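Quick review question:
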């Protein structure tokens, strides 16, 4: 279709299934859960379309039942990493030269396969392997995953259509080339949709990828890789290499063909790899594009005019859904003294009703944190608060890892606005409350802005419009996604493009055209329709 200008229609967001009692959707999901629970997969590397088993293996377990093994996966060594780079570079020429509409059709086929054939299987894989509730799994993969793919085709058409102005006698064009090399995608455990997008956003723009999935999300990520292949992603365009980060990163950052780094994960890991890339700058054929979404210490700020019930719901949902393991999860709250008693009571009432346990019991609101290391880290923060003189445990504060990695939703109250759990990212079901004097609203806003190095998400609750405007201005750089009278989580593709700055990343807004543009290497072409035949200019005609 080189002789056609094709514009994809703007898609609608994928509808979120409710899995209500007695529904056919719930029955289908239960069936998929039973199927995957009874299987134990052997997960290979996938390099250049070929499955490779190294014999160096690890186990995939259910976080809520860590005695139950879902899969054995093979780990890549330095040899396999180089093989993946070579396979990607081999695929680069043909994939980057393929008309963009043809690439888009592959993206849409992936989305359609997940929306239909693999919907319940993908949801079940995310639930079992990453301990998500049916709703949290549904909004991740399939829904957000599908949205990323469908909207990427729409936004790509906008990017390619953005062309420069041409004066009379001149024809100007902009060619949005793929990067000259491969993209290294390092993906997190908490969102399978992100794992897809970190590979498919660059691929949409003609790039090839070497993909290191999180070891705690390998089950759903491998299923995703198989769907990529079924949808027609050519061999070598995406190469799947689980393994140890330090081993893989060493080979990747040393490669002269590294052209991009697409990342979601911890600030520490991002900084480490950015430093390694910086140390190797002289070795690269071109400066690598670095795009990352990292940590967060997201706030809920409450003005005295806010309704207590709305704030309480935002705290419970924003801090405790998916066990607080979202980059955007509410992790600190600033509450005026006049509202604290009421909010405390309402949060307590909700927490007394909430159930925690196995994902296959759909009545559970809370499930397990991802692994033992995460459990131990979260409990260390909780125990620190228990022993502190300037903090107290208001709700929760307990954990049990004998069967699964379960941490009760925990609310800490502190009198110190710079208390450790107000500053550092915990990535678990823990929120810390600082109660402030109602008369110190603006002063406390400044505290909020200055307390944490992060700048990902935050929310303001108020009925007073002047108070909202004050917060909006004083917290200008405190959050890349700013919510008014809503929890700081739940960004929807195309509605709230996602990302933050400061220590939260490069703010390249996943789910919008800004991210796609980062994976292009533009070339501007000027054509002179009738070239001049004399060197002279009119001003030369007179002394």
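Suggested answer, residue by residue:
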């Amino acid at each position: 279709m080189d002789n056609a200008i094709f514009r994809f229609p703007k898609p609608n967001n994928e509808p979120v299934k409710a899995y209500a009692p007695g529904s056919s959707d719930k029955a289908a999901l239960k069936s998929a859960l039973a199927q995957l629970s009874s299987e134990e997969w052997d997960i290979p590397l996938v390099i250049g379309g070929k499955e490779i088993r190294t014999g160096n293996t690890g186990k995939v377990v259910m976080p809520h039942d860590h005695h139950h093994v879902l899969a054995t996966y093979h780990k890549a060594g330095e040899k396999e990493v180089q093989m993946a780079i070579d396979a990607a570079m081999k695929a680069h020429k043909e994939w980057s030269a393929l008309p963009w509409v043809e690439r888009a059709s592959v993206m849409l086929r992936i989305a359609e396969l997940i929306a239909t054939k693999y919907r319940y299987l993908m949801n079940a894989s995310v639930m079992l392997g990453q301990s998500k509730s049916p709703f949290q799994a549904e909004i991740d993969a399939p829904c957000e995953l599908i949205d990323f793919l469908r909207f990427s085709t729409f936004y790509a058409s906008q990017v390619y259509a953005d062309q420069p102005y041409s004066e009379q006698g001149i024809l100007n064009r902009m060619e949005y080339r793929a990067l000259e090399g491969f993209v290294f995608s390092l993906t997190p455990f908490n969102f399978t949709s992100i794992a897809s997008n970190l590979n498919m956003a660059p691929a949409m723009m003609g790039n090839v990828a070497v993909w290191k999935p999180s070891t705690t999300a390998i089950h759903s990520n491998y299923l995703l890789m198989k769907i990529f292949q079924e949808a027609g992603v050519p061999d070598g365009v995406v190469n799947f290499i689980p393994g140890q980060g330090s081993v893989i990163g060493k080979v990747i950052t040393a490669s002269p063909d590294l052209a991009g780094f697409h990342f979601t994960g911890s600030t520490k890991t991002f900084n480490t790899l950015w430093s390694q890339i910086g140390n190797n700058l002289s070795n690269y054929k071109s400066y690598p594009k670095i795009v990352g979404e990292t940590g967060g210490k997201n706030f809920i700020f409450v003005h005295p005019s806010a309704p207590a019930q709305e704030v309480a719901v935002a705290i419970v949902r924003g801090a405790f859904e998916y066990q607080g393991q979202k980059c955007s999860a509410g992790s600190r709250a600033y509450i005026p003294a006049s509202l604290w008693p009421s909010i405390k009571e309402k949060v307590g009432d909700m927490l007394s009703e909430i159930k925690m346990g196995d994902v296959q019991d759909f009545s559970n609101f809370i499930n397990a944190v991802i692994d033992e290391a995460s459990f131990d880290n979260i409990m260390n923060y909780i125990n620190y608060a228990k022993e502190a003189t300037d903090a107290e445990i208001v709700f929760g504060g307990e954990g049990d890892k004998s069967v699964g990695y379960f941490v009760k939703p925990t609310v800490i109250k502190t009198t110190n606005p710079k208390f450790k759990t107000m500053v550092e990212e915990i990535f678990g079901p823990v929120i810390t409350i600082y109660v402030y004097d109602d008369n110190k609203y603006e002063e406390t806003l400044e505290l909020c802005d200055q307390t944490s190095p992060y700048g990902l998400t935050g929310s303001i609750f108020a009925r007073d419009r002047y108070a909202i405007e004050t917060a909006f201005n004083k917290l200008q750089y405190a959050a890349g996604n700013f919510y008014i009278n809503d929890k700081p989580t739940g960004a929807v593709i195309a509605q709230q493009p996602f990302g933050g700055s400061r220590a939260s990343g490069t703010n390249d807004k996943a789910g919008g055209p800004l991210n796609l543009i980062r994976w292009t290497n533009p070339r501007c072409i000027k054509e002179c329709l009738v070239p001049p035949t004399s060197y002279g200019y009119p001003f030369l005609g007179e002394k």
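Why it works: The chain has a mean pLDDT of 97. Residues 298-484 form a domain with the Aldehyde Dehydrogenase; Chain A, domain 2 fold (CATH 3.40.309.10).
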